[in-house]
Design brief:
Helix content: 10-25%
Structural class: alpha+beta
CATH class: Alpha Beta
Number of helices: 2
Strand content: 15-25%
Number of strands: 5
Shape: globular
CATH superfamily: RNA-binding S4 domain
Strand order of the largest sheet: 2-1-3-5-4
Number of domains: 1
Order of helices and strands: EEEHEEH
CATH topology: Structural Genomics Hypothetical 15.5 Kd Protein In mrcA-pckA Intergenic Region, Chain A
Oligomer: single chain
Distance between the termini: 23 Å
Radius of gyration: 14 Å
């Protein structure tokens, strides 16, 4: 996100902590040098979470709803994130 490769609802986003909302459409900016890297990464992922709609060919995604905590498989310690942002 930091390099502005992404758009949300057609607007360039370069903030890594940008919070998407339901019905937001996330798209890879056309002509970016990261397209092949993103395509390779999406080829490795066959499971799309229920709260997200993904178009692997178009490299777009739509947020259908906010995920529930139990739907997130990543080993995340929310308290550590909160502590980091409080500094």
């Amino acid at each position: 996100m930091l390099h502005g490769h992404w758009t949300v609802n057609g607007r360039r986003v370069d903030i890594p902590s940008y919070q998407v909302r339901p019905n937001d459409v996330i798209t890879l900016k056309p002509g970016t040098g990261a397209e092949q890297v993103i395509r390779d990464a999406t080829d490795l992922t066959s499971v799309v979470p229920a709260w997200l709609q993904a178009d692997h060919d178009g490299l777009t995604a739509k947020v259908l709803r906010q995920p529930e905590r139990q739907e997130i498989d990543a080993p995340v310690q929310e308290q550590l994130i909160v502590e980091l942002y409080l500094k």
